[in-house]
Structure formats: C-alpha cells, structure tokens
C-alpha cells in the first residue's frame, strides 16, 4: 500500500513539473511590447508612460493586459552570483519598481530573454541559467516571459524550451510563456504543454506585402505571414496559441492596411501584442486597436482559429466559428485596387470539421453586423454585396437568430 501511494504521489509530482503552468492564456494574450518601435532604447520612464496611456487610451478597458519589455532591459554582464541585472542607467530603481508601477495600473508585466548564450542584441542569454533566471522573474513579479532563439548553435529547441517551461513552473508564480522560436522547429507539433504561445514565422515588418531585406535575413510582410498560417489551426486552442508575431498597427501602414492586419490577427485567434508608440498614436490607430467587436472575435472562448474558405478576384473569404452559433467572416482584399464582391449565404452550407460548427443559411437566419462600420446590414436571407478597398477588409459578425 505504501509503495502504491508513493508511486501515485511521485506521478502527481512529476506531472506537475513536467509541463508549463496551466490555466493561463485561455484566450490569446493582449498587450504591448517595446521592440517594434523602440528596440533596445527602453527605460523606466517609458514603461511608466506606456502603462499610463494603456489605461487612459482605453486599451486596458478593451482587454490589453500585458506590458512587455523586450531585449535591452538588462546590463551586459550578470552579477558575481550569476544573476541577471537591470541596466542601472535605463532602470535606476530596478525591475521590481517598474513591475510594481505596471501592477498599480491594473496591468501585468513581462520581460524578455533568450534560449541562447546571448540575446539577439548581445545581452546575457539564459542557456545554463534557466532555473536561476526563472527565480529572478518570480522574485520581480513578472507575469509574462518572451523567450527568443538567437545564439543557439548546437542547442535543441524542444529541450531548451521545455527546460525553461519547467523552470518557470517550479517558481509557483503564474508566468505566461511566449516561445519566440520563429517556427524553425515546428513548435506547434510539440509545444502544447510547453508554451502558452509560440511564434510560427520569422519576424514581422511594417509592410503589407512581400518581405523587407534586413541584410542577413528578411522580415515578413503581413500577407506573407498570413499565408504561412495555413494548415496550423488544428494546433491552437485555449492555453496554446499560434503566434504570427506582434502587431505593426500604427507603424507606417496605411489605415486600410492597419485595419486589415488587425482584423486578420483577430480571425487567426492570434495574440494581439501592440508594437507602436502609444503615446502619440493617431485617433485612427487607437480606434483600430480598441475595436471591441473585432477583439471579441479574437477572444471568443471557443478558441477556434479561422480558416480561408474561398478566393475570387484577389478577395479571400475567411471564416471563424464563434460561441452560440455565431460566425465571423472577413473579406480580405490582397490587391492594390478596390474590388466589388458578393456572398450568397444560401449557396451551400459551410461545415468546419475542426470545430464541428456549421453555417447553414437555409436552416438558420443570421443578422449581419459590420464590425468596422458598426452597422447592421440585413440578414443572410439575402446575398451580401459590398466593395472592399485596396489592402482592406470587410469584417462581419453573423449573429444567429433564434
């Protein structure tokens, strides 16, 4: 009897520490990250300013929760005991002080490190210090860790990320684990119990189509990243999300491209991590980021990623099953000129084999709500006709009528 009890206890103990912390990121995380705009030019005052404007702009009320400091927050060397040290010039009061400020605003705080020997910008990486660094994050009340993949020659990705995941779990502090491995080792196939989200591609850039030459590598435009998501939806769900990278909304795209970019990330049930300078964003940018109807599509508790259903005349039709029999529909115009289109809802029933949801306009009537114009546009009893602008979207929510 004692032997059986010991085995059961050991199995329970092993299970508890063999995977990530459970119960986190049950919907895709929403927040802000410093990298896209500031790179390593970050400091204590910036954190406070961003936290303030996340509240004053309405982003917190819209669901944005995490303020994440990316690469460049630490000193170039660890201390004599091997501990990470915040850059004393950038953060004279230390990381705990900025974490406390962020928490005082009702937000959560995140930090960055890397699976390699050094971070992408050359600061101390975590290789060999996983458990020590995890204790540092917990001691500084960190709620979110973005874990990158630079300087990892000879390192096995699954081993490295699993080790860090276990290290975070042993601290007892609930820390969302964001795996920034760039999709090189197909993390969607093995990371469901390792990370809460994993990057599916290389880095995004503030262009809509094509790629941007960065010298030794190419950053990806919005459309390129969307194309690379196809076939991955079956791996995503509550607590484990495909991550097509942070948002470039407000970073040089046109208003239409910002709207399309944001809409498609919502259709993909992607983490919505803003990367613009919130302190001076335009009204148009703010209204895109805090569109609660679009965010509701992203945050739908079913946790089903959308899928490409059809394409005609450069307009792609994307569908996403939602709770209570509702559907989100997004018509994405990939071309550089406006395109008129129509959708005959009754042409044939649509069935999603992943969610087992069906959109059958012959059996059910759906009210059509336009997520960006905020207007109701009839029902699915009639063919829907519209024109979608260049690099723009028409995004709808079909509300099932009883």
Features:
402 residues, disordered N terminus, 11 helices, eight-stranded parallel β-sheet, 26% helix, alpha/beta, Immunoglobulin-like, TIM Barrel, globular
Structure description:
There is one protein chain. 26% of the residues lie in helices and 23% in strands. It has 402 residues and is of the alpha/beta class. The strands form five sheets. Strands 9-6-5-4-3-2-1-10 form an eight-stranded parallel sheet. A six-stranded antiparallel sheet has the order 11-12-13-20-17-18, with helices on one face. A two-stranded antiparallel ribbon has the order 7-8.
Characterize this entry briefly:
With 402 residues, the protein is of the alpha/beta class. 26% of the residues lie in helices and 23% in strands.
């Amino acid at each position: 009897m004692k032997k059986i009890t010991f085995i059961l206890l050991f199995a329970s103990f092993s299970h508890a520490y063999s995977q990530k912390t459970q119960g986190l990121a049950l919907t895709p995380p929403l927040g802000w990250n410093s990298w896209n705009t500031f790179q390593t030019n970050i400091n204590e005052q910036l954190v406070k300013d961003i936290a303030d404007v996340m509240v004053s702009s309405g982003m917190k009320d819209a669901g944005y929760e995490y303020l994440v400091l990316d690469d460049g927050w630490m000193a170039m060397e660890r201390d004599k005991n091997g501990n990470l040290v915040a850059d004393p010039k950038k953060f004279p009061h230390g990381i705990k002080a900025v974490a406390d400020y962020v928490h005082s605003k009702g937000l959560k705080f995140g930090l960055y490190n890397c699976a390699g020997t050094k971070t992408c910008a050359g600061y101390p990486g975590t290789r060999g210090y996983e458990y020590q660094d995890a204790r540092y994050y917990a001691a500084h009340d960190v709620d979110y860790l973005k874990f990158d993949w630079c300087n990892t020659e000879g390192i096995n990705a699954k081993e490295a990320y699993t080790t860090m995941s276990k290290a975070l779990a042993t601290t007892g502090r609930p820390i969302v684990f964001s795996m920034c491995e760039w999709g090189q080792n197909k993390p969607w196939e093995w990371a469901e119990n390792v990370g809460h989200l994993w990057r599916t591609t290389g880095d995004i850039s503030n262009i809509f189509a094509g790629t941007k030459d960065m010298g030794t590598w190419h950053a990806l435009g919005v459309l390129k990243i969307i194309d690379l998501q196809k076939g991955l939806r079956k791996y995503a769900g509550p607590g484990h999300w495909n991550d097509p990278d942070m948002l470039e909304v407000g970073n040089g795209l046109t208003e239409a491209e910002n709207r399309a970019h944001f809409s498609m990330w919502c259709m993909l049930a992607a983490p919505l991590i803003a990367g613009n300078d919130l302190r001076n964003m335009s009204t148009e940018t703010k209204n895109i980021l805090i569109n609660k109807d679009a965010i509701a599509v992203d945050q739908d508790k079913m946790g089903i990623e959308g899928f490409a259903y059809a394409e005609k005349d450069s307009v792609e039709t994307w569908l996403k099953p939602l709770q209570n029999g509702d559907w989100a529909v997004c018509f994405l115009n990939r071309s550089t000129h406006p395109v008129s289109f129509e959708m005959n809802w009754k042409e044939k029933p649509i069935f999603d084999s992943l969610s087992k949801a069906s959109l059958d306009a012959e059996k059910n009537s759906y009210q059509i709500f336009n997520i960006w114009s905020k207007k109701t546009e009839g029902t699915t009893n009639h063919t829907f006709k519209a024109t979608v602008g260049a690099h723009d979207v028409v995004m709808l929510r079909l509300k099932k009528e009883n």
